[in-house]
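Researcher: Structure prediction, please.
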Amino acid sequence: MAPPDRTLTISLAERISDIPQDQWDALEHGQSPFTRYAFFEAMEHSKSIGARTGWQPLFLLAWEGTSDRLVGAVPAFVKSHSYGEYIFDWAWARGAQAAGLDYYPKLVVAVPFTPATGRRILVAPDAGPEVEKALAASTRDVARQLKLSSVHWLFVTEEEEPTLTAAGYLPRLTQQYHWSNQGWTTYEEFLGSLRSKRRREVRREQRMVAEAGITVRMIEGPDMEDRHWAAADAFYRHTCGRKWNDPYFERGFFERIRETFADHFVFCAAERGDDVLAGSVFFRSGDALYGRHWGRREDVLVKGLHFDVCYHTPIAWAIEHGIQLYEAGAQGEHKVARGFLPAAIRSAHWIADPRLAGAVDRFLQEEREHTTVVMDYLEQRGPFRRGDDGPLPGGMELPQGEALVVPDAPEPEPEPQSG
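Model: Predicted structure follows.
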């Protein structure tokens, strides 16, 4: 452990390429691959982040004394909007507007466009808790100095939450749906654990894909051919163009991932012969798999294909390869029927204006109670237990800002995720 009297020097960097890669990657990142240098560099290289996209990097760096040894870091971004975050704060922006306050710019600690839990306070293996505390406090100090409205730590780990709460951040609880291996050693064991109705649905979806002459398989990055990389990029852009607006990841992102981060990349390809008809993008680190984006050719309309490419085949591959956790992205109650269960998602927030902070605090307390009820209910009606398969009681939905009395806001942003 580091000595308690360790002195730190805090600096800021606006580009990941200005930070020594070996020192950045030597910090503790946990199991998530998304805070690794290569992932940020691929976004920077492709111009997916920067002032033009409204994600201006502002990496906080903690150096040991006056030395050149990096002992801690926080990936932060100055934001001029709330897109690409997946923990929605549109209602807070409306409340600020109604009160005559500027909500943007704000500071967000996150991995852009990536709704996956992971460490946000990166520290050296021998760093003591004082480094984490210093970075939590320094992030808020930077926001004050830059006159930003707020700080938002998104998708933090359960272990980081107490440090942030102690530093004055308001904790928030939302949910996703995750698959975890409950001791299955084969895919047939997993299917056998499902209730009969759910098991029949899965087999029917897989059968429809097979009867269409389509083969679905997982391909790790180093084994992917040119056609697979081209398809991954094309499907991502087609899905974004068909359902949403411009893609978050600019052209060149997947090419850069292929060059520098292919060992963490996995592609689920739906093929007929040499034709790639549909696919889903994944990242892997250790015993965790992260589903990101799904897409298909416009002329391919096969029932069950989406579920096979995004859930069934990845789960089978996960069991075969010792994966213990599969995060399939944001939203999607339909995932419960296919083996996923509710999982707590944590974030932490600091609001400069005390009036808005009070309103947000009240909202978060109500949201936490509601989220807990919903998670408990969905847990009970999960695919591995007896329970009703009907909708949530009374059409219940997670609150998206009822605690703040404000004018109408834009619709919450959908996300191009695998679910």
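Model: The CA atoms of residues 80 and 104 lie 5 Å apart.
Researcher: Thanks, that helps.
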